[in-house]
Amino acid sequence: MSEPKAGLRSRLVDVGVELVTTEGVQALSLREIARRAGVSHGAPRRYFPTHLELLSAIARRGFEELAGKGVAALGDDTASPREQIATLGRVYLDFALTHRGMHELMFRHDLLESNELGLRDVSMPIFSLLVDLVGRARPEADAPLVAGALLANLYGIAQLWTWGSLQLATDAADFAPLLDTALEAHLGRGE
Amino acid sequence: MSEPKAGLRSRLVDVGVELVTTEGVQALSLREIARRAGVSHGAPRRYFPTHLELLSAIARRGFEELAGKGVAALGDDTASPREQIATLGRVYLDFALTHRGMHELMFRHDLLESNELGLRDVSMPIFSLLVDLVGRARPEADAPLVAGALLANLYGIAQLWTWGSLQLATDAADFAPLLDTALEAHLGRGE
DNA sequence: CAAGGAAGGTAGACAGTGTCTACTGGCATG
DNA sequence: CATGCCAGTAGACACTGTCTACCTTCCTTG
Question: Which nucleotide, over all strands, has the C1' atom closest to the CA of A53?
C-alpha cells in the first residue's frame, strides 16, 4: 500500500513537514521535496505555482499543529486566564524548541510579510485567543497592546534561546525562568 | 580617485552593506557582491573562505553601527537608568525598522548559531550594557534574567512589527505604545 | 641584479537551484 | 471512435556557491 494515490498536493506537504523537522529548513528545496515524493521536479508546479507557496503550505501545517497542541493542553478551560496563558506559553516554547526547523520556517520574513500567501489567516486566530485571555486576566489594561507585547516577548525568548544567546547570559538550564519572568512582567505576579 | 586600491576585503563588506540596505537580504549573493565590487566571482574567496563568512562580516558592521548609535544617543549618561534603557530601546527599534534588510541579516539563524563566525563577540557587549542598566534600574531583581526577557521583548516587537502583524492587531501608528508597554512591564511604571 | 616565490585575482568547471516551456500518457466525455 | 483535458515528464535557461588551475605582478632573498 503505502498510500499509492493519496493526492500529490497533500503528499508534497507531508514530505515537506517530515523533511523540515528532520533535516532542517535548508533541506526544503523544491527538487528535493519532489524527489522524496517520487515525482519529477516539475510536478509540484501543478499545485504550487512557486516554491514559496509550497513552503507556505508547509508552514501552515506548523501553525495548525501548534494551535492543536494549544487547545489540547487547555482541555476543559477551568483554570484561571492567567494559568491558561502560562500553559499556552509553555506549549509554544516547547514547540519552538523541539521543532526548530518548523518554527524557523513559520516565521520567515518572506512568508509572513506576504499578504497573498495567507499565513495570517492561520496565525491571527491564535493571537485573538491570547488577546481574549489577556483581557480577562487584566481587565484594566489595553488587551491587544499587552497581548501584542507578550506575544512578542514569547517569540523573542524562543528565538534568542534557540541560538544559545540567553542560556549563555542567564546560565539557566531551561526556559522556565525566562517564561515566568515574562509572564510576571506582563500579567503581574500570579496572585 | 574613487578609492582605486582601498583593500578588497573591506570594499566587499562596504558593497554588501550598501546592497543589503538598498536591495534587501536576498540580493546578497556572493557573485553579485563581487560584480559590484568590480572583481571576478572567485576573488572574495581570498578573504572569505565561504559565503557565510562574508555575510557574517557584513552583519558585524550592522552590530557596530547599532552600538554606535546607542552610545551616541546616550551621550553623557546623566539620565536615569530607566530612561537610558528607554533611549536604547527606541534606538534599536528605529534601527530595526529603517534598516530592515540589515536587521534581518543580523539575526539570521545560520549566522547567530555558529560559534566560529564570532557574531557573539559583537552582540554580547550590547547585552552586557543592558544587564548593567537593568541591575541599576531594578536592584532587587535578577538582572541577567530580566535583561534577557526585556531584550527578547524588544527583538520580538521589532520582528512582529516589521511584517505588520502587530499594527493590524493593535492599530497603532508607530511602535511607541508597544515599547512603552514592554518597558513598563519589565521595569515597572516610570516613577 | 637575477631568480624565486608567494600574494591576489581571473576564468572555467561542476553540481545544485527555481522557473519556464514543450511534450506525452491516460482517461473521460462528446 | 475521436477530442480534449488533466497530471506529470523532461529538458532548457539563468543563476547560485564552491573548487581548481592558471596567470600577473611585485617583493624578497640569495
Answer: C18
Q: Is B120 exposed, middle or buried (0-12, 13-18, 19+ CB in 10 A)?
A: middle
The C-alpha atoms of residue A44 and residue B60 are separated, in whole angstroms, by 38
- Same domain? B161 vs B69: yes
Question: Which of B97, B160, B162, B178 is best to mutate for the A interface (most A CBs within 10 A)?
Answer: B160
Q: What is the CATH number of the domain that holds B122?
A: 1.10.357.10
B56 in reach of chain A (CB within 8 A): no
pLDDT in tens, A52-88: 999 999 999 999 999 999 999 999 889 999 999 999 9
Same-domain status, B19 and B41: yes
Percent of chain B surpassing pLDDT 70: 96
Whether residue A54 is contained in a domain is answered as no
Q: Are residues A94 and A45 in the same domain?
A: no
**Does A17 lie at the interface with B, CB-CB under 8 angstroms?**
no
CATH number at residue A29: 1.10.10.60
Three-state SS annotation for B59-85: HHHHHHHHHHHHHHHHCCCCCCHHHHH
- Mark whether B102 and B174 lie in a shared domain: yes
Q: Which of B113, B152, B169 sits opposite A148 (nearest CB)?
A: B169
> Is residue B71 included in any domain, yes or no?
yes
Q: Which of A142, A159, A181 comes nearest B149 by C-beta? A: A181
Size of interface A-B (CB pairs under 8 A): 135
Residues 6+ apart with CB under 8 A from B53: B117
Q: Compare all CA atoms of chain B with the CA of A131 and give the residue at the minimum distance.
A: B169
B103 and B19, same structural domain? no
* Nucleotide closest to B44 measured between CA and C1': C9
Domain count, chain A: 2
Q: Which of B175, B80, B64 is nearest to B123 (CA)?
A: B64
Give the range of the structural domain holding residue B131, as residue numbers without chain letter.
59-187
Does any CB of chain A come closer than 8 Å to the CB of residue B67? no
**Model pTM greater than 0.70?**
yes
